[in-house]
Each structure stands twice: as structure tokens, then as C-alpha cells.
Amino acid sequence: MSLPHNAATRVLRLIEPESAHHIALWGLRAGLGTRARADKYPRLKASLAGLDLPNPIGLAAGFDKNAAAPDALLAAGFGFVECGTVTPLPQPGNDKPRLFRLSEDRAVINRLGFNNEGVVAFADRLAARAGKPGIVGANVGANKESADRPADYVRGMGQVWKHASYVTANISSPNTPGLRGLQERGALEDLLGRMREARALLTAAHGHRPLFLKVAPDLDDAAVRDIAELAIAYELDALIVSNTTLQRPPQLTSDNGEEAGGLSGQPLFQLSTQILRLFAQALNGRLPLIGVGGVDNGLTALAKIKAGASAVQLYTSMVFAGPSLPAQILSELDALLAAEGFDSIAEAVGAGLR
Asked: What residues does 292 pair with on adjacent strands?
């Protein structure tokens, strides 16, 4: 990391978290971000649900909710960038303060509540980058006051489909009351059935897009089996495992550890990786997985891959490590694969399960 980026990251950590986030996005849009080649390491090329990724390190949804700076983020070295979560109608989200750093724990708690500018503005921004290279996904959700949440997902899909590399349905945020109820079998069957119908029409009109589902880490074994079974039955292309957790691991030391909301970052690593492993075992290679939660270096990225992930995503670790983190992880991951005798990412996927 260059000195200016080091200094900028330190300064941003002194500012109130949500304001720091807005400043970081402004800086990216202004061209102040770090730059790194996403395709520097041939060994790190990856395939995910028909998408050819220059590397398996992606940016998770939540950082760029309104698709304001996907190309600047791709330029930082990410193999793919997921924008959102976006809802059909603009909404302010929950009351502030709603974002808390747990610096001692390398973690964040958020209860943002899908604050975003709405899917029309979001889709317009994606449309404006037509023809540009890079994999940019769209993560869609439901409005807090919606009377028909599955309809919100269908509407979101319809708006972004033409302009996104893939679409993710986020049914696992803990900060919209009742949203995680969509993970229960009956509700999920209804949602996935309606999404499948919409997808058929959208594919006929605009072509194929991979469709992903993002799930919570706070699931029991039966829920994992149900979701895995339904993901296959309704022809999803991948699962993203996982969102933030409502659990509070006993090792948290920060004063903010008792704030309400979803916990992300280092303390989520073990829990999210265990749930990823359970999904990998339940799916047995029938559906690719994207591992999220506590990825902050090459070792944690490789651990997710060995637990069954074809690609990984990160977000919270950028808060603490700054914008050169993707480049650092790529260098470390390439060296680790070489040291362990893997010639490709594909060879390492699920290696810890065999």
C-alpha cells in the first residue's frame, strides 16, 4: 500500500463510520483509489456459474449500495464486484447511528436497513457502464414496508437484469424485520417459484444471467438441507454463504459489541466457514458456493475455498486494511496455492472436504 493510501485509511478510521464510508466512495469516484491488475496471477483464474473471473476475490454487497463506483473497485484488483443491496423504492434505512466499528475485534456491526436510492437510479448507473469490462453483479432486496416481498425481488430482477453480470437475491439481512423468514421452506418455495417464472421471461428478452441467493450464517442443519434442496430444485446458479450474524461470539472485546445489528469481520470467520462447509456437503458439488465472512488475507481466502467455495467475497476487512487489500490477498493466495501444489483455484475447491 502506498503511503497516501495508508494515511487515508488511518484518517478514515478516525471519522464516524458512515461518514467515512461516504468519503471512501467519493474518493473512488474521483479516481483516488489504488490500482492493481485483477489478472496478474494466471493460477487464480476462476470459473463461477458460467462467469469467467480473473481471480476469485470479490467485493461483497453493502459497500457500493447504489452502484456508484464499480469500475474503480474493479480497478483495485477485485475479480468481481457486487453492488447493492438495492430495493424497488428508495428508502432511508434505520435511524442513525447504525454502523459501528469494533476495531479491537477487526469487526463491524451494522443495522443500516437497506438504505439506498432505489432500483431505477441503480439500474441507470449500471446501464451507463455498458460495454465496459469486468463482472459486476446486482444484489436485490425488499422494501421494509412492502406488502409483497417476493414481488419486490421480481421487480428488482426485472430492473437490473439487462445491465448486470449476475443477480443475487438477498434474503438474509437481519436489519429488515421479518426478511430472514424468507429462508423458511414454505416462504422460500414461494419466492423461488416466482423468481423462476420472472427469470424465464427475462432470459427470453435479454439473455441468460446467473441467479444467486445470499443466506444467513444463523441456520441449523435442517435449514441448510432445505435451502440446498430448493436451490437445486429451482435452478439457482450459486449460493452466497453468508451474510452477517446476530450471534455475539464470546471473544468480542470492543465496547460496541453489544450494539444491535449484524456482525461482520474477523469474528464471523469460523461460523460462516462452518456453515459454508455444511452447504458444500449438502450440495455435494451440484451448485457452486461463494464464501463470505472474515476474509482478510490469503490464508482465510484459501480456507473458504478449501471448505467448498469457488470464489470468496470481502468487505469489512477493507475498513481496517484499506484499498490495497485485494492486491495483497491475490499475492498471498497465489503463493499459498503454489506452496501446496495447486495449479489452479478449481483444484483447491473443496480440498478440505475430501
From this structure: 313
Catalogue the E-assigned strands of 15-110: 46-48, 51-53, 57-59, 80-86, 99-102, 107-110
User: What backbone torsions phi and psi does residue 292 show, to the nearest 5 degrees?
Assistant: -135, 145
- Residues (pLDDT < 70) of the chain are 1-6
Q: Which domains does the chain have, with CATH numbers?
A: 3-348 (3.20.20.70)
Bridge partner residues of 313 (DSSP)? 58, 292
Give me the pLDDT at residue 350, please.
98
Given a contact cutoff of 8 angstroms between Cβ atoms, the answer to whether 343 and 20 are in contact is no
Q: What is the model's pLDDT at position 71?
A: 97
Answer yes or no: 173 catalytic. yes
Q: Do residues 18 and 98 touch, judged by C-beta distance below 8 A?
A: yes
- Catalytic residue, from 173, 242, 272, 324: name it: 173
CA nearest to 124, candidates 154, 86, 98:
86
Q: What is the pLDDT of residue 1?
A: 34
Helix (H) or strand (E) holding 247: none
| pLDDT on residue 2 | 36
Check residue 5 and give its pLDDT.
59
Strand segments (E) across the chain: 46-48, 51-53, 57-59, 80-86, 99-102, 107-110, 136-140, 166-170, 211-215, 238-241, 262-265, 289-292, 311-314
pTM: 0.97
According to the model, what pLDDT value does residue 6 have?
A: 63
Q: Are 327 and 36 in contact (CB under 8 A)?
A: yes
Is the CB of residue 74 less than 8 Å from the CB of residue 134? Answer: yes
Helical packing angle, 3-12 and 17-29, nearest 10°: 150
pLDDT at 93: 98
